[in-house]
Design goal:
52% helix; N-(1-d-carboxylethyl)-l-norvaline Dehydrogenase, domain 2; 2 domains; 8-stranded mixed sheet; binds nicotinamide-adenine-dinucleotide; 333 residues
């Protein structure tokens, strides 16, 4: 009998693999891998050595490089490719979409140049509205793979769909809250990476806890201003995909974005830092420019994002950026 809840995970980086491991506790999973060789290696070794080493894939995870098969064998397509590859992956996936397919994005990021959110990219490529939900919230891949209790948000403009995904994905180690504010959830999950880079810079320069706390708090204010200007709700940014994810990424040692920021703060150059990541993404690097583009479009002030962009892309010394933030004209809280 055909089940209506077959899940294919599209993208086998750290996060796609961790979600597959979590979901495989209750469902058979197909895991699509971009690299053909990587898929073959993972299928025989049963480990994702490149992106999430140390976790054995159970027998009910089928690894494939065949996107058509991954689509054909699923009712729910959980897309977890880095944001820079969402458009090309959706182009490849669209010919295989059925009207009954549900799409879920777990990617955090804003597209370069277009400044589109991931769900907007997905619908633009498909050419029509999709049954679509987005996942976001405080979740390091490694901890989800370890089945440590994790709580995230599933957002959809369709409340029934959000509840369906909530039931389908839940386990004793993964709890989901529904939300209908897709804009707020997607922007919260994306812009927190920009603030995490800045938190890393503060750490790398060797500044104190006062500075970190100020950055997180003013970061939330900046994230909320942009999300609201784009049509999101302020309460969403106070939730899991706002404050929750920001606190995780700004304080947790597993954050790649914070690590990149720390290295920048220590004076290393961005290309050298990125080369050391060996193909792993730090979404905040791209999202900084895109967030700034969105801010300009909506006339929103984002001083931290502006300074982060100058450090990343215009070689501004981090200490100068901090001095400028501290000596801006006085403001009302
Ligand atoms: N790592 C985490 O803890 C975590 C947690 C929550 C959300 N996320 C988000 O999940 C998304 C994916 O990040 P990740 O950490 O799993 O990635 P990753 O850095 O671990 O892996 C990079 C992935 O990109 C894939 N890739 C490379 N070239 C490609 C191409 N041309 N087309 C399609 N895919 C290609 C690789 O196969 C690999 O799966 C990001 O938006 C990230 O912000 C990550």
């Amino acid at each position: 009998m055909t089940s209506h809840n077959r899940i294919s995970v599209i993208g086998a980086g750290a996060w796609g693999t961790a979600l597959a491991l979590s979901l495989a506790q209750r469902h058979p999973i197909t895991l699509w891998v971009f690299e053909e060789e990587g898929a073959a290696r993972m299928q025989s070794s049963r480990v994702n050595q490149a992106f999430l080493p140390g976790f054995e894939l159970p027998a009910n995870i089928t690894v494939t490089h065949d996107l058509a098969a991954a689509a054909a064998n699923a009712d729910v397509l959980l897309c977890v490719v880095p944001s820079q590859f969402m458009r090309s992956t959706m182009r490849a996936l669209t010919p295989h979409l059925r009207p009954d397919h549900v799409l879920v994005s777990a990617t955090k990021g804003i597209e370069d140049e277009t400044c589109l959110r991931m769900s907007e990219v997905m619908e633009q490529v498909a050419g029509h509205q999709l049954p679509l939900a987005v996942l976001s919230g405080p979740s390091f891949a490694k901890e989800v793979a370890q089945h440590l209790p994790t709580v995230i948000t599933v957002a959809s403009r369709d409340a029934d769909l959000a509840q369906r995904i909530q039931r389908l994905f839940a386990s004793p180690s993964l709890r989901l809250y529904t939300n209908d504010d897709v804009i707020g959830v997607e922007l919260g999950g994306s812009i927190k990476n920009v603030i995490a880079l800045a938190a890393g810079v503060v750490n790398g320069i060797g500044l104190g806890s006062n500075t970190s706390a100020a950055l997180i708090t003013r970061g939330i204010s900046e994230m909320t201003r942009l999300a609201v200007a784009c049509g999101g709700r302020p309460q969403t940014l106070a939730g899991l995909s706002g404050v929750g994810d920001l606190v995780l990424t700004c304080t947790g040692s597993l954050s790649r974005n914070r690590t990149v920021g720390t290295e920048l703060g220590r004076g290393r150059k961005l290309p050298d830092i990125l080369a050391d990541l060996h193909g792993q993404v730090a979404e905040g690097v791209r999202s900084t420019t895109a967030a700034l583009g969105l801010a300009q479009r909506h006339s929103v002030e984002m001083p931290i994002t502006e300074q982060m962009n100058a450090i990343l892309h215009h070689g501004k010394p981090p200490a100068d950026a901090i001095r400028e933030l501290m000596t801006r004209p006085g403001k009302d809280e």
